[in-house]
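#data-curation
PF: Archiving a pair of folding outputs for the training set. Convention for this channel: one message per protein, sequence first, structure tokens after, nothing in between. First:
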Amino acid sequence: MKLYPRYAIFIICCLTTIFATVFAIAFSNVWWAALAVVTAALTVLGILDLRQKKHSILRNYPVIGHMRFLLESIRPEIRQYMIEGDRDEEPFSREARALVYQRAKGVEDKRPFGTTQNVYSSGYAWITHSAAPVVIKDTDFRISIGGPDCTQPYASSIYNISAMSFGSLSANAVLAMNTGAKLGGFAQDTGEGGISRYHRQGGGDLIYQVASGYFGCRNQDGSFSAEKFAEQARDPQIKMIELKLSQGAKPGHGGMLPASKISPEIAEARGIPMNIDCISPPAHSAFSTPTEMMEFIGKLRDLSGGKPVGFKLCIGHRREFMCMVKAMLATGIKPDFIVVDGKEGGTGAAPLEFANRVGMPMLEGLTFVHNTLRGAGLRGDIRIGAAGKITSAFDIARVLALGADWCNSARAYMFAVGCIQAQACHTNKCPVGIATQDRKRQRALVVEDKSQRVARFHKNTMHALGELAGAAGLTHPGDFMPYHFMFRTKDSEFRDGNEVYAYLPDGFLLASEEIPELSEWHNRWDRASAETFAPSEIPFGPFRRKSQAA
């Protein structure tokens, strides 16, 4: 039989087993016996590799082929610890993670010897500083959220914990974040999985997210229950209600939690049975048109006792958001806030195509929402939140300049409680006990320590934001405007923020005379309807109005 080099390791194991066994018997030597046992096990493994039909590589490379699977399994760790550069974003750079870790631990977060950024490359952005900087002593930056129809406005921090459900996060992670929010005076979004006992235990302010599964406020058939919602929403710990239309990680996609993964605590929080798969449908059943959506928002506000009610979405069809705005005008019912999630959001496990290719990035989505509300004359009544890879004071300052009133972050607070970006969130094998329901794994996360880190990270980030605002000559970061930023669009060119992310004129969508430079906005506004999300017509090529066509 012809011997192939790929079988060399397997043959060596076979021969070593034979010789080691002979020597162990002949000399009664324990070391030879141990060697025989090890190589015998490898020989058996090789035989099984040759006989199995699942993996071609093991049939061709018995024994040694397992090295390929071993190296593949630890590839993320090898890259993260040995190969990755400080600014390689996959999905967060080492530099960004280190900044969160340092601020959460309260250790030195300064760095020597100048920037490592390529300040002449396309995409680089910077803040224009003032010759008359200001020292801001109070960095507990807050805004009031609540429109004309809200009777219980909320004095919110401008940097809160974004939506992450109990079930996706461990009990200890939820409790650490909520306790930290209580210590630091900011809010935690519950995520769509309902309000768990661990959200309540910490005593921190909560934003109750109501998604298409209506967890915590649903009937047995999965439909919305007004009675259960009112019971939840009127809890004093609940400060705002967030209707989730979509999320950046997987916009337009539902989900399923298999019955095997539903624990008694998850069932309690979601209000679901344990022996049935839990379905989160892609769309809401409580409404199907823009007008019905606004009426539902009004209903939620009434049921909650007048608390701020808004919605969260990742922008998809821009016309559909304009449909919602037209419904606000038609019904007179306006949300108190809108949270714009960028497609770069990512705590939710998602199909690769959705994570990579569906939804609008946050900066473009935020600018569109902000300017649409300005164009409809509604911006003054509606607050805007933004979410999507916001980890530093610069990230916060930039989105505030582009139209946001406050920011949410999920993964930054995950880093604050110890996330190492192992990207094993969906496996239930999180190495630091954050994204797992394995009690033995989650006990590694000590709530008393990590809650302090959460509060410290928030405080130090707000202090850094105050320093940035002061350097720009401002007294509050909410005063940042696009012109405070410069954006390098090409390696040799840069533009003022007003040129790249301009604020469009108030009321221009409702004005009798159109602005020629904004014809695309006017055309899209004309196609939008308060009665339906469906397009009145599908434009092929550039859209032309009937008046223009004539």
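PF: Second:
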Amino acid sequence: MSKANSTETRQREDERDRGSAHGAAGDQLSTAPREERPDTGAGVPAMSVIGWARWFWRQLTSMRVALILLFLLSLGAIPGSLIPQTSVDDMKVQAFKEQHTTLTPIYEKLQLFDVYSSVWFSAIYILLFVSLIGCIVPRTGQFVGQLRSRPPGAPKRLTRLPAYTTWRTGAEPDEVRAAALAVLRKRRFRVHEVGDAVAAEKGYLREAGNLVFHIALIVMLVAFASGQLFKSEGGKLIVEGDGFSNTLTQYDDFKSGSLYDSDSLAPFSFVLDEFVGTYEESGPQRGTPRTFEARVTYSEGADGAERKDVIKVNEPLLVDGTKIYLIAHGYAPVVTVRDGRGNVVSRSAVPLLPIDNNITSSGAIKVMDGYKDKNGKKTQLGFKAFFVPTFAGEGKGQMFSQFPALDFPVLALSAYHGSLGVDSGLAQNVYQLDTSKMKEFKGEDGELLKKMMMPGEKLDLPDGAGSITFEGVEEWASFQISQQPGNGWALGGSVAAIAGLAGSLFIQRRRVWVRAVRGADGVTVVEMAGLGRSESARLPEELGDLSAALVTTAPVAPEKPAVSTSADVDGPDATNEAGSRPVQPAEAPAEGAEK
């Protein structure tokens, strides 16, 4: 009975020693803030306001809450991608509201048409920002403290560590420790000698990568926020030969962040010299663009020298921090309008909007000033226009283009006269014709006057009201002029986040101890053990490489012939703790066990 009690006591001591060994060796392997656990008991006092504030701060700055907030931010961005946003396209938002009268009030209350500036999205954004800072600051301090400190001394029982090996050598203990210092330093370990052992540590880049990842997240959040607050973005459609100056009045549409100052528009201008587009002429990809580029002449500043460049899709022109993107292309029929006396009232290239991939286009031609009817009364003209760059021919189906290039251009017009409604003060779509206050020109058959024309042909208006001539076709290109100051920081933060995450995942923090002491028989006993922050199959391999390098200086001593006893029943290869082969913790003899 006493022997059994002694065995149980010894086992409890072993378990306590094992826990203390791992605790002393591994307690500082992580720089994560330690959570304070409240004492559990029947009489737990109620927390004060300050206590609740501290508890809330600990929860907010925990990694668990940071991940939850990041997940919520990702979920919050989903409606911003699926629902039209006012900051992107107000016309799409209005069309959505007209089509979904039931959902619109709900979406407006939830601010789903302005997701990225909504109260709830901003709250998640700010809380995530604070949470990350609260995570990083204490971890950084702890990490710097660990960099300045030395690896802890060797545990009492190295056999309890996950990776362990031992051998006997004829070298002196001091020589073994000196050789261990040299070998470990060569492998880029931080080392120092503590008592009868050498302590070494490696893998600090793991925690550094973790900190870099979180700092990069903050940089990305700041970059995205500054990009939204200080950005400017506008569109401009330009016909060949026309130009653009970067002033607010020159934009077709313009949007900016809430903190953007329009006086900070970069001074530059450019002219669209020519648009070049070529297309696949045969095969399954017929009509696919092969060349799609805008050749421009630009100048930077008020008196800058003129330079030529080519803007391609996804290859913008960069001028003074502003990027000019090529986003669309189409055709602008050149028409000349004359009054009843033959005087030229208007001659211009009128851009039409494409409605399919073959650039079938529609739009409106408006004559607002300078026209008088046969009685000398000022009035306005309007023409609904439908253009195809490649016409299939008469009797070959509907009038839709067969190819995007200008192989067989045809322009179809229908004519109106009266008031265009442009004097009402209400904004109008330049590509649509409001005929509510206009009358139709009648043809000989009494129906609406229509005609399909090729370049050079003319449509005569009835009763000597004048004519409109289809002179030819020019091409137009649509550009997006944007200034987003946070893009560079966002890109740098993304790259740093990936690098930091890779370091935190693939680099292992580990410690190695080498103990060299003289045994009872005068032969030096060398013990090596390793401990990693997490389980890894590479740790025993690395320890084996280190021991192989150290054996060259401290070679294995030959075994003395052992006297045959009853203990030989374990076999000729069995060894004790001072044996010459690697020993795992489970294989190490328990202290006090019978030999």
